[in-house]
Write a structure and sequence with these properties.
The structure holds 2 protein chains of 2 kinds. Chain A is α+β, with helices and mostly antiparallel strands. Chain A has 2 domains: about 5-120 and about 155-310, no CATH class; about 320-435, Alpha-Beta Plaits (2-Layer Sandwich). Chain A has helices spanning about 20-25, 40-50, 60-70, 95-110, 125, 140-145, 160-165, 180-190, 195-210, 260-270, 340-355, 375-380, 400-410, 415, and strands at about 5-10, 30-35, 85, 115-120, 150-155, 170-175, 240-245, 250, 280, 285, 290-295, 300-305, 305-310, 315-335, 360-370, 390-395, 420-440, 445-450. Chain A is globular and about 70 Å long. The two termini of chain A are about 45 Å apart. By secondary structure, chain B is an alpha+beta fold. In chain B, a hairpin with a 4-residue loop joins β3 and β4. Chain B is elongated. The mean pLDDT of chain B is about 90. The chains are: A alpha+beta, B alpha+beta. At the A-B interface, α10, β15, α12, β16 and β17 of A face β1, β2, β3, β4 and α4 of B.
Amino acid sequence: MKTLRIGSGAGYSGDRIEPAIELAEHGELDYLVFECLAERTIALAQQARLLDPQAGYDPLLSERMRRVLPYVGRGADGRRRRLRVITNMGAANPLGAAQEVRRIARQLGFPGLNVVAVTGDDVLATLSGDPTQILDNGMTLGALGERLISANAYLGVDGIIEALQADADVVITGRVADPSLFLAPQMFEFGWAADDWSLLGRGTLVGHLLECAGQISGGYFADPGFKDVPDLARLGFPLAEVDATGRAVISKVQGSGGRIDTATCTEQMIYEVHDPAAYLTPDVSADFSGVSFSVQGPDQVLAQGAEGRQRPSSLKVSVGYLDGWIGEGQMSYGGPGALARGRLAREVVLERLKLTGVVFEDIRAELIGVDALHGSELGSRTPGEPWEVRLRVAARCADHADAVRIGNEVETLYTNGPYGGGGASKSVRQVVAVASLLLPREAVSVQIHSEDLP
Amino acid sequence: MSGHKLRDLAHSRTGDKGDTSNISVIAFKAEDYPRLCEWLTVERVTEHFAELLDPHGPPIRRYELPGVHALNFVLPGVLRGGVTRSLALDAHGKALGAALLDLDVRGAAIVADPG
């Protein structure tokens, strides 16, 4: 029976590149997928594009493509198994990204590579016609006014399948649901119907397992003495070998670092899932509640038992908007009495902010090493005092000037606060918040583009 | 002496969507799973994270995944505004699962044998 080998070349925008190249070179892959768009990435990319119309795609696109294109198609000598690339690195500018990939392909001597962009996820213009639409945070679109910067629908497999039908070697998208990047090549190669919910559920499981790359092959797993992982510095990225019935075996390139077993697969399957019986994507409502894993060999795990039901009637739209500024300051205290001095420093800063009338919507003042991650109750479970603590004060402010004063007040602890503080740092960043709403499918029109815009 | 923390029986990973966190708790050994289901209740997890939860917010939900001997806890609102607006050092709440593994399981009547 024909099988398909799909690799995962990135789990987020800044991910390692070497393991992706290792997969391209030694994975005997048919497809290599790079998933690089987190919840807010596209809003940040849209901001970059406002400053520079050529920008707005993934900052590592060029470097990744320079490294991987020599393995795409049938390779430089035309004799390799055909490898195709699918990625959402187009972010806020898939057309610009595709143009850049074509430029790199020509430069590297592969002018024949077919690079296809998928558009349609950007629904900002569509939405601005109806300011009464309500976001999941209770605000209306109209209330955001000029603070609204992006609105992108999570697309499903359609545009990618169309691009593959058009014989694309490289498919570049903006916002697409992460598992759809992996489901599309399975549907295309095996001819799965768009309403064969069981198969789509299985293919979505494969996508969900692979979408975070190293997180299933031993990354984000090691806990020395409890869960050991060999050779994390050379972590291998995962691949799935799938057949037409949706049977999938997860593995990695032999000799690479990391581990794949039922434990790593289970952690990744439940990652970012709420109800495992209803994992919603634009393509299917997948059911992972009956999934089980079994080891087939070293670093080889069979996944089975996923199901699916009819897809949702609406598409989720992620809306990015400007929401003030976060000002932050930090200062460390060490040696005997560090905790008491850190606490005193915290009191002083909070009182100063009050005295000087700094306006903020929300504030946190915490001691890193004590109560910053999980609060004071859980943070006090470890006996004894820490040798060092780091005060961190962060506040969200409507005005930039107020946000600047947060870090400044922490910094003035140097000459005005308790004894023995060092290593002050301060920062101010603009808040790009993300909320969501639902849009009927019919309001979205997906298109593919095989040529540069004139 | 080892063997009395949840960490000895199970492992965990935390995910985030908006301001909701989900924490998996996966038994190392399938035979411990029924006891884990019985003992690791929504109430127990709520109590453990009391300081971090909004007392007026929606309750924690629990889902069972018997095929992989795991539980999935969903904590709405715990990320306080979500990754994009949160002031938290760990805005994703990635380390929440590690905190849950500190639960003392001696009351669970699970014979812990990490060897």
